[in-house]
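Illustration: Oidioi.mRNA.OKI2018_I69.chr1.g1775.t1.cds.
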Amino acid sequence: MTFNDSPFVSFCQVAKRIPVMHVGGLAKGFLVPGRLTTGIKKLATRLVGPNKLIQAAIPKILSIPVSWHNEQNTKLEEAADLFYDGIMQAPGLIPIMPSGAMYMMVKIDFSRLENFSDDMHFCQTLVSEKSVFVLPGSCFGFPNFFRVVIRSPRKKFQKLVNESSTFATIM
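Result:
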């Protein structure tokens, strides 16, 4: 799953000296929400193999046409473009365009946003003042960034872009 004409590169192609097995998952390939995967994991840990719910769903899941995946990929690419273009207008925020992820990393330039001490402070203030929830990059080993999921409905996504840009502009 890539977009912007980016080629897919498997870890199997990159890791030459160690064996790597590439596997896919339902959560990313079929857009299974996190809260559902958490429930499924709880069920799966009680069993040695996949739970009955997943076993019963697999034939239906695997019969989803490629056109559906292409449509989802197009929506994801459009969302990435929309967010990137919108956040580029905000002073002090520098988005990193993804090539196929369901999220985007945005660098926070604290020399232009001096009211914040770090990415955690920025994210906490954004959620408390604008009700926009993003994850601090330090959670992922990327301080001075924040991570935003770009798989939201278009109306909500436009609000996210507007609120984030406005927030950065007035701060």
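Reading the tokens back as a structure: The helical segments are 11-14, 26-29, 34-44, 52-62, 66-87, 119-130, 154-170.
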